[in-house]
Each structure stands twice: as structure tokens, then as C-alpha cells.
Amino acid sequence: MYIIPEYVLQEFDFIKNANLVSIKCHSELQPCLDANKKMTDFLTTGDVVFHLLHETIHTQEILDDIVKNALCKPINFKIFSATSTKFKHSTHPLTNLITWNSSNQRVDISNDKNGEIPLFNEHEFPIGLNIIGSRKYRGILSVRKNNPIRDLLFSSDIDIKNGICRYAQWPHHGKETTHHQTLKTNFPTWTELIEEYKNSMFSFIVETRDNSTENMHTDTGHNTLGDKTLLSFLTGTLPIVLGGANYISELESMGFKVWNNHFGFDNVDTRNDYKQTGTDYFRKCIDTINLLTMEECTEYWLNNKQDIQHNYDIASSIICNSEYNILN
User: Are residues 110 and 98 in the same domain?
Assistant: First the structure.
């Protein structure tokens, strides 16, 4: 059983009792700045939590403006987002996991939010569950939405031997066509995807990153700790992750374990050329694991069962505990 640190519990209480102010950071720069200033203009006193509507702040200009406006007010404030990155005025990355407590998810691969279902159901992932190691797939690489990094990763042949490998190249919200709707049954529902993960020993995670080639603003460098990574923990896989710079060390600082550097990633996410080389080293991990026999994969999973269980216990203790359903 994982014991949540006291400083995280204190931040839970802070968020529960503070005024929640939703802020925008996911459209054009000036409209976001204008909207956020209107929100801070109403603040007078007390504890305030600035809550991201879209996971993380990728634009430094927006973050700087939020902090500048807040410091002009007689308030005690924190910035809450779905990130593993610590920054000034931020809540702790473990605290940020409550972003996903009682969150909902699309039923299938489409962007249609009608008939949403729980993302991580506490009955599906109960606290204290003993992770089971009977798994039929070597690993899973299942990528939904298209972006430049994912296009690069799948630009040449890639495969998971005796496993699952798919790239749907699904368009972003508002760009789906009638043709896309006819294709959605070719891909698993969220419930079916969970079962695929539960039957996989390794998971290869391509986490959300701000990869827009049109973004001319300064990037904060905050890593998104999203449902993709958390699904790998909660389903008891051995995750190999492709996120932003220093994502692996940030996860490890939170107490999680990922297995990139055991299979040839070579701490490349700490190098200055990571944006150019990260996908190559991610593929290197896949190639190395593909060389193992299925028996060797099973033995490796069993030998790492304690760390796999610990990942599950951390994630489930916060995400799947209704007591910490603070935001939803």
C-alpha cells in the first residue's frame, strides 16, 4: 500500500478549500491573455488555485502573464496542471495526479464526447489490487492522434513482435470527416484498449507534447503527465516512454519507474539534441525488446513485479480514490 506524502495531502486540502480559477492556454495567444486577465481582475483576497482547462501550459508568455497578474493581487496562489514538471508557484507533480480522478473519456477513438465513460474507474483499478502477470502480448504501441513526432516515429516500418502496433493518425477535434466516422469501428474502444494493455508485458508510450511547427511562442518545457502514461502504470505494464526533455527523471522523482534506460535509451532525454534523436532511441528500445524471446519477456516482467506493483499503487491511491475527487 502506498502512503501519500503529507505535503501532497496538504496541497489536496489547499485545492479543496481554495477558489478555483480556470485559465486558458489552448488557443491563440492574445485571446488567452485577455480571458485570463478578466479572471484575475475579479480576485481580491484568499487562497486561489489557477486550474488549467487543457492539461498543461506550453506557452511561456501565458505562464508569465498569469504569475504577473496574480502577484499584483493580495492572494496566496498555486498553479495546478497535469504536468510532471515542477516550476515556481506550481503544485507538486504527485498532487497533479488528481487531474485524472473521476475524469471521463470518449467511448471510442472519435472526438465525440457523447456518452462518455469513466477514464480510470475505481472498480476497474481498486486500491490494493495485486497485479497479475499472465499476459499474452510482448507489448503494445497504440497511438491515436496525429502530430509531427508521431508521424516521424511511424515514417518507417515499426513493429512489436508478438504484440500490438497501430497508429490511427486520427485528426484533431473539429477536423473529423464523415469518412473518419466510418473508420472508428476499426479501432478498439477505451474499454477494449484497457484489456489490450492488461494483456501486454511492455507498453510503448508516446505522451502528449507541444509539437506544432507553427508555434512561434516560447515553450515552457512542461511535460504532460497524461492518461497514456498513467494507463501503462495502472494496467501493470513495463513502460517505455517518449515524452519531453527530462520526462523520465521527473517520473522517477515522483516515485515511478520506467524502463527506457534498461533497453538502450541512454538517458537521451537529458541531451540538448533530444528533440532530434528521441524517436531514434525510442525505436532502439523497441528493437532491443523485439530480440527477446517471449519466455525472456515473461521472466523479465516477473523479475520486475515489485516495481510494477509500486507504479500501480502510487497511481491508484490518488487517481482511483473517491476521497480525492476534488476537481470533478
Answer: no
